[in-house]
């Protein structure tokens, strides 16, 4: 099997969540049947959103360095369990001789292939991802419109994402319901969890009756990347 290189640390718990999903999806009956994985948990990578909003240093050289480290350590391909980091995907790819899977492209292809009549999707993401329009750009090739939250709610969601990074997954229900109500007003049926911190939150409250009442199809981008990674590693 191919060896996966995980360019992680954005944040650490999201990296661990991706790693665990790969393990469970592999269905190995012994240690030897699992996929070899190298994790570069580089927590020193500057905040991607802060840079994209013009408030911090560029993370690009850190991302490139970590990707090269993974390649030199023997990874056969690289994944980044961070949606916002994919704003730098094309630049990182230029420095590598091995493939790097694209989480946003994988998500766009999944929705196109599995929800063929979909014309628009809702997006929950960081302000960096929203401002970059990366999801809009990829989904436009599939003629799918990406609906973002209003600016006020984008800021509130960003605050929640930072709290999740600190380990606080509690007491966010009322804000989350407001986000889902906003998307519901636009007749959205599919909601992309476009930040790898968000599955950590949704896993904690997914059975809540008020959340379930919206009856959305939630697209866990971390899970999609994990599935594609397992599939690619076994080719």
From TrEMBL:
PROSITE patterns: ASP_GLU_RACEMASE_2 (PS00924)
Record SUPFAM superfamilies: Aspartate/glutamate racemase
Record EC number: 5.1.1.-
Domain of life: Bacteria
InterPro entries named in the record: Asp/Glu/hydantoin_racemase (IPR015942), Asp/Glu_race (IPR001920), Asp/Glu_racemase_AS_2 (IPR033134), Asp_race (IPR004380)
Keywords, comma-separated and alphabetical: Isomerase
First-tier enzyme category under EC: isomerase
Protein name: Amino acid racemase
Organism: Alkaliphilus pronyensis
Lineage, broadest ranks: Bacteria, Bacillati, Bacillota, Clostridia, Peptostreptococcales
């Amino acid at each position: 099997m191919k060896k996966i290189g995980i360019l992680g640390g954005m944040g650490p718990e999201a990296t661990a969540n991706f790693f665990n999903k790969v393990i469970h999806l592999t269905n190995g009956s012994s240690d030897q049947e699992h996929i070899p994985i190298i994790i570069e948990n580089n927590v020193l990578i500057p905040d991607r959103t802060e840079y994209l909003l013009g408030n911090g240093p560029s993370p690009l050289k850190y991302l490139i360095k970590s990707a090269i480290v993974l390649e030199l350590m023997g990874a056969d391909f690289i994944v980044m369990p961070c949606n916002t980091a994919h704003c730098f995907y094309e630049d990182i790819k230029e420095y590598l001789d091995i493939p790097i899977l694209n989480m946003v492209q994988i998500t766009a292809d999944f929705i196109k292939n599995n929800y063929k009549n979909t014309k628009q999707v809702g997006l929950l993401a960081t302000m960096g991802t929203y401002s970059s329009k990366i999801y809009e750009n990829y989904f436009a090739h599939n003629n799918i419109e990406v609906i973002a939250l209003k600016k006020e709610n984008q800021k509130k969601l960003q605050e929640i994402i930072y709290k999740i990074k600190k380990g606080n997954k509690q007491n966010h229900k009322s804000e989350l319901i407001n986000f889902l109500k906003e998307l519901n007003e636009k007749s959205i049926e599919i909601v992309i969890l476009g930040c790898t911190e968000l599955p950590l939150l949704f896993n904690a409250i997914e059975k809540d009756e008020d959340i379930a009442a919206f009856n959305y199809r939630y697209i866990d981008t971390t899970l999609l990347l994990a599935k594609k990674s397992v599939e690619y590693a076994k080719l």
